[in-house]
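Worked example 2:
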Amino acid sequence: MKKDIYEMITNKIIKSLEKGVIPWHKPWSSSYLLPENFLTKKKYNGINILLLWDSGFNCKYWLGFKQIENLGGKVKKGEKGTFIVYYSTFMKKEEIDGVITEKNIPYIKYHYVWNLEQTEGIKYEKKEIKKIDFIPIEKAEKILLKMKNKPGIMHKGNRAYYNYNNDFICLPAKETFKSTDSYYSVLFHELTHSTMAIKRLNRESARDNHFGNVEYSKEELLAEIGSCFLCSESAIKKTFDNSISYISNWLEALKKDKKMILYAASGASKAVNYILDKK
């Protein structure tokens, strides 16, 4: 059965958004800038930029499978490609009032590419990620130490999200954030999400939400408010890079449910009290 490429793209973006990953908003630095093909030096554009950014690699270079082989390299065992799309055309004949005409009809196709970090045997210049001089904030670190039964926290890749099934928070390296405040702002957002777990505050509706629905908007608003509260506790300037993307959803949800802000603020207070171990 032929795959619906538009649906593939939409599903990929939605999956990221459901994890709290917003491909076009990043409060941390990326060394690769716009992705480009390593062999042709042609930069990708449009939706392909988002699809490649969303894969979480720091290197900006990508190659097709045959291109990798032609350069004497190979894909590392277990590495999966990232699909990108391109448009092609086919000729269609039409007869109007006895006159036959031909016109090009565009259609969308896809194929897979691999980041150079996923390959072996190809030499390339590795550019260092722009890093800040990260200095831990004592009050923020004390909050992390005080939280009982906290989730695992790892620093890996180019994404920030809370994984409910495995109960861990994943963040990019601390030094790659735009500021120390940005790092703790994002960490506190995900830490607030983590209180949805059964063994913590058991927010069942938060675990069953889907991007765009009311419960999703509630949980995101709750996590942002919780992050604000924790930033205030730590004397940190809260950053709002991510929340801008949710405003339209919040507005729609708030119009449908006038109690939502009360729910979110109350839930955020409960989450923060749990994190701070306050009764």
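Residues 31-120 form one domain. The mean pLDDT is 80.
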